[in-house]
């Protein structure tokens, strides 16, 4: 036993003396600069990560890789000289053209604009360095799209702490959008603040109170000077303790649902940098709870670009409603302008209003983004954050699957039913054909009532029974008005019973996905009156 321990001790001493660079590399390689949201419209082509060797000795990082953040492994013979940098970027060509510095290109991935973990590991999977950056809290706000990169100026400090990070102030150039980029890849950090503050948002907390947030701490005297805010009558201004937010009290309340403009100018930061130009913000307050309901969704038309995407809404209230300031908090990006809506009136918002007008003959307002073909939540809120309506549609059962690329829209047949329940949604029917697009018939009724059914059955006591859609593909809905209890059976043309319900009296969704294409007969019989009816339906 003693001999084994002695042998182990000799081995440990031998390993430590022979491989000092391993321990050194794990402590001396540091992530020092991150450009996660450059000021670009569209794709962030200038994203990059800088790592630094703070020791005086060369370190071989061949095979090192990012296990979180982006996907990239440093190739063979990658050596960082002492007190030197190595860079990796999302687009090495764009990076080198702009900064004039070489960089490795990531294999895949991109940096999140809202923050995430960046983890660098060695060939054994041990963590060399990691940073969990963010775009809020104690992290500098300027790197989130305003122009500068996120920089770690003192590599001897702990780069896990947000307080040890700042933002770049060295101008690197002007991009194709005309915006200045501040970064210094492959160079020392500058802590001189040369970037002016920017108002990032204006929100209403009441009809007489506004909250204005800035990209950094601002000078108290400038931020509370009423002359720097125009367009609205201001009674008082207060700045919060962090000096990144001011609260404005208005003399007169905002008109409900009506947009007005607040202009902000001449605000300076603690370093004396002043806003170069005034900035305008649309301001609106609307805390009403109008009965606005999502009633139709075309989320995946047969075209490759989903050019016919739309969302239809109907107002079920009994008096005129103000909608200005309502917005989609989930799903597409859309804010209702200053507008009113009358009882039972429809509103359609779409991806391409001009194409909607051409194809459907319906006017619509444009949303930004698109609807996911796999489904997603759609949530409408007022300016106070109260939910007006919420629907989370999917492309799987129990949602009607024909809406997923087969030309049909999702349709809330009975607008008085709960539209958050998939069983209350059906499809536009063959009577709702709007035309042919990309070789497929489109069934949709934007701006009008949908789910038209056949004439159906009217019983002796006036009760109406409807089957829809007809023709059907995978799902068949049966709806009955009345309190009588009914039996239902479906037979094929050979008289074979394919499906049976021994009791129903409201609305059912029948699965006919296993039925062969053809004609079927639906038999109804009232348990109360013994009335007997047959309805023909086509499965295609």
Question: What is the fold's blueprint, element by element?
Answer:
Blueprint: H1 2-18, H2 20-28, E1 29-35, E2 48-53, E3 59-60, E4 65-68, E5 72-73, E6 79-80, E7 84-89, H3 92-99, E8 104-105, E9 115-121, E10 127-134, E11 150-152, E12 165-167, E13 171-174, E14 180-182, E15 199-206, E16 209-214, H4 220-223, E17 229-230, E18 234-239, E19 245-250, E20 260-264, E21 279-283, E22 292-298, E23 310-315, E24 321-322, E25 327-330, E26 340-341, E27 346-350, H5 353-360, E28 365-366, E29 375-381, E30 387-394, E31 410-412, E32 425-427, E33 433-437, E34 440-443, E35 457-458, E36 464-468, E37 475-480, E38 486-492, E39 497-504, E40 507-511, E41 518-526, E42 532-539
Parallel strand pairs: 7-8, 27-28
Antiparallel strand pairs: 1-2, 1-11, 2-7, 3-6, 4-5, 4-9, 9-10, 11-12, 13-14, 15-16, 16-19, 17-20, 18-19, 20-21, 22-23, 22-31, 23-27, 24-26, 25-29, 29-30, 31-32, 33-34, 35-36, 36-37, 37-40, 38-39, 38-41, 41-42
| Main pleated sheet | 6 strands, mixed
Number of domains: 4
Beginning-to-end CA distance, first to last residue: 81 Å
The DSSP helix count reads: 5
Total count of strands? 42
Radius of gyration: 32 Å
CATH architecture of the largest domain: Sandwich
Strand order of the largest sheet: 8-7-2-1-11-12
Return the average pLDDT rounded to an integer.
87
- The chain-level structural class is mainly beta
Q: Bin the strand percentage.
A: 35-45%
